[in-house]
Design goal:
alpha+beta, 139 residues
């Protein structure tokens, strides 16, 4: 009985080590791909919140991006875009926003949230995000 117990435990340890090695081997390339995907999503969000812009330039402080300047095809400044983290009911809400040069909201997009499905998660729907378009930042 004791020998069977030791064999079962040894098999479980071996299987755990194999699983850990496989997961560890997949983690690094997956994280690199995830960062690429997240940056692509950020670039798409910039276009969503300020659709008149042709290209964007990051304004940084050291390594941190503060906001993005948006330019049209003629390289004229047409607005600004930003990403902001805000505490929500169930976790952090990450949103993208855009304003034109007169500081009127051009768009809002919810990038990430953990709100309750069917209730708080409605912040991602257009009936909610579209209500901010055309509103002056001061309002």
């Amino acid at each position: 009985m004791k020998k069977e117990y030791i064999m079962v435990m040894a098999k479980m340890v071996v299987m755990s080590v194999i699983a850990a090695v496989i997961l560890g081997g997949l983690y690094i390339p997956t994280q690199a791909q995830l960062k690429i995907y997240q940056e692509e999503q950020r670039q798409l969000a910039l276009v969503d919140v300020l659709p008149v812009a042709d290209h964007f330039e990051a304004v940084k402080s050291g390594e941190e991006t503060l906001f993005y300047q948006a330019f049209d095809a003629s390289n004229n400044l047409v607005g600004y875009c930003f990403f902001h983290d805000q505490p929500g009911s169930q976790g952090t809400i990450t949103l993208a926003g855009g304003v034109d040069t007169e500081y009127t909201v051009t768009g809002v997009k919810i990038m990430k949230h953990a709100e309750t499905p069917g209730l708080g998660a409605k912040i991602t729907e257009s009936f909610f995000t579209d209500q901010f378009k055309g509103v002056a930042v001061g309002d």
